Amino acid sequence: MNKILVPVDFSNTSSNALSYATELFRGSATEITVLHVYGTKSTALLMKNINSVLEKDAKRRMDELLENVQKKHPDLTLKTKIIKNYAVSAIASLGDSGHYDYIVMGTKGASGLKEVFLGSVAGGVISKTSAPVIVVPAGYSFRSLEEIVFAVSDDPFSDANLLEPLRKIATMHQSKVKVLHIADKKTPQIEKALTAIEDLNPSVDYAFGTGDTNKDLNDYMMKDFAGLLCLIRTKKGFMHRLLNESVTLKQTFNSPVPLLILHD
């Protein structure tokens, strides 16, 4: 059974991420835990009363949200968690617990990839958890996963087993997988990525561009029709390059599709 954690703050963005999760894992045995984290910076004298109000309001809104989801998906198994904590640490901790296969989160239309990963709750969670994270752009509507793009660096990963979440989704949707290497020239290291998922019969594509990885990846995804982009987070890998290159307003990566982030 797939066990999915979906944090919500009752915004349209988080509700949309929940909707995406229900569609992504539809047709498979799935249990979705909908999480709301609340907190207050009030003084100690006021904290107890305010927390009580926040918790009561959260329960009401959670009931309304789940009622709407259950009407559309009556066979879906839904659980809820409402906890008082800091959002990033609470979500990351639950991701590290081993109880969930994926975390699915929305992101509020950040202008670029740096903003997605460094300036949002989703970014904080990605930097702190070891669980696979699916980041859903605000307003994105689920569409058939006919193709998944798996973007890799010269040295893509150390352990092929970390690709299991990618394999699971690709198998579930019978998706074609395209391994994308953005580089100055072809390199034999790309074979490592191809061998690790050879059972999925991946194709390979190279994007020889400007040397600005953000711009090159953005340009590629804007003309590709993939339904999901998979990236691996490493200390010296592809995402390290993405987050450390200079970024301008005209050279940012604002993903048109959801991102699947795996951790090496």
From TrEMBL:
Record Gene3D superfamilies: HUPs
UspA domain: residues covered: 2-137
InterPro entries: Rossmann-like_a/b/a_fold, Universal_stress_UspA, UspA
Pfam families: Usp
Recorded family membership: Belongs to the universal stress protein A family.
Name of the protein described by the UniProt record: Universal stress protein
The organism of origin for this protein: Ulvibacterium marinum
